[in-house]
Amino acid sequence: MSTSAMDVHHDHAANVLADPTAYADDARLHAALTHLRANEPVVWVDNPPYRPFWAVTRHADIMAIERDNNLFVSGPRPLLMPAEGDDVMKQQQDAGIGLRTLIHMDDPHHRDVRKIGADWFRPKAMRDLKVRVDELAKRYVDKMRDIGPECDFVTDIAVNYPLYVILSLLGLPEDDFPRMLKLTQEMFGGDDTEHKRGEGSTEDLLAVLMDFFAYFSALTASRREQPTDDLASAIANGTINGEPMSDMDTVSYYVIVASAGHDTTKDAISGGLRALIDNPDQLARLQNDPSLMGTAVEEMIRWTTPVKEFMRTATAATEIRGVPIAEGDSVYLAYVSANRDEEVFTDPFHFDVGRDPNKHLAFGYGVHFCLGAALARMEMNSLFTELLPRLDSIELAGEPELSATTFVGGLKHLPIRYSLR
Ligand code: HEM
């Protein structure tokens, strides 16, 4: 029997985790997480309209949970949604019409499906793609120069570049860029009013999903008829035990690639640039020593932690840090908190472009470890390697604004003033 509100003490600091607006307020979110790590690192959160869950805020506990992927599974509640969203997802999946991506799946099916696209994310594929990524990085830094001396770095630069990279990897035509941009933002910015479709109701979100379906079903048909050398063809023609993937798994694969690699990287790039602006000593250090780019990119990813959480469900009664967890309970993995854990990071609230080691959990851990981690790192590396030597000055030209979402989030706007060669 799962845990109920009657069974447990409830620390109200933890309510922020189930409050999208808290994610738009760094100071508020981190104050609560620091308090929880110190006082109640495994805490019950009961804040409607979300169903209750355990939040785990310590780095070591999150790793242990992700490592044990038989005891803690992704289905049926892979991420935090209002109860109504959970219900709709379940109804759709029961009816066989729900999106079922890698993040929703468990082994052995997860392993089989992941294998189909995995080669396209390995180092060899990354090396092949690097020329194209460097070219795109240059295109966007040139654009930044041309529209200067001021721009909104998020909407003018950071949002477009990662999507172009993914469309290139998938092998889709550039003409489809505006449509994909809109769809991925409508899907991932779900809690935030600025990117919502219509009223942001469950029906509106469903309409977004249906648009994805229509687009990618047509893509599958064309790649099956005429395979090309790209990720889209690998997905369209992928087989499991000799059988083609189901239509749902195929479409879901495109959706996860198009969406997971987009806003996440945008958030890391724009939040990374902001961290450099806020820490001019670190910017100067990196400009003077480009060999720090690898550690700098890693620190930007830790610092921004674009994916705020994923969830797992306990398949049997167990304990985390001595706290009893009942079978069927949901567990929220607080990546944002893990990446400021005092037990793992020296001076965790200091942005340090030379930080090494940097064992952050921004890409998760274990069998679901981010498939696109090498791609995200390469994209960021290319962009900052192009940008920093050409940048003579940079400052904020207005207030940066964070998105209000419990899932994938970061800066919505980053107004900057700069001089760029
Ligand atoms: C800085 C950018 C990124 C961050 C912070 C990020 C973060 C994450 C996280 C936290 C997970 C879940 C890991 C877990 O459950 O343990 C994940 C999974 C995933 N990511 Fe990323 N990601 C980023 C970029 C990308 C890119 C560029 C792609 C490529 C298209 C991508 C594709 C995926 C896929 C397909 C999964 C599902 C893997 C699975 O469930 O097996 N991500 N990512």
UniProtKB/TrEMBL annotation:
- Pathway the protein contributes to: Steroid metabolism; cholesterol degradation
Q: Does the keyword Oxidoreductase apply?
A: yes
Q: Which GO terms describe its molecular function?
A: cholest-4-en-3-one 26-monooxygenase activity; heme binding; iron ion binding; steroid hydroxylase activity
Alphabetical list of Gene3D superfamilies matching this protein? Cytochrome P450
Q: Which GO terms describe its biological process?
A: cholesterol catabolic process
Required co-factors: heme
In terms of domain of life, where is this protein from?
Bacteria
Q: Keyword set for this entry?
A: Cholesterol metabolism, Heme, Iron, Lipid degradation, Lipid metabolism, Metal-binding, Monooxygenase, Oxidoreductase, Steroid metabolism, Sterol metabolism
Q: Which family does it belong to?
A: Belongs to the cytochrome P450 family.
Protein name per Swiss-Prot or TrEMBL: Steroid C26-monooxygenase
**Organism encoding this protein:** Mycolicibacterium vanbaalenii
High-level lineage = Bacteria, Bacillati, Actinomycetota, Actinomycetes, Mycobacteriales
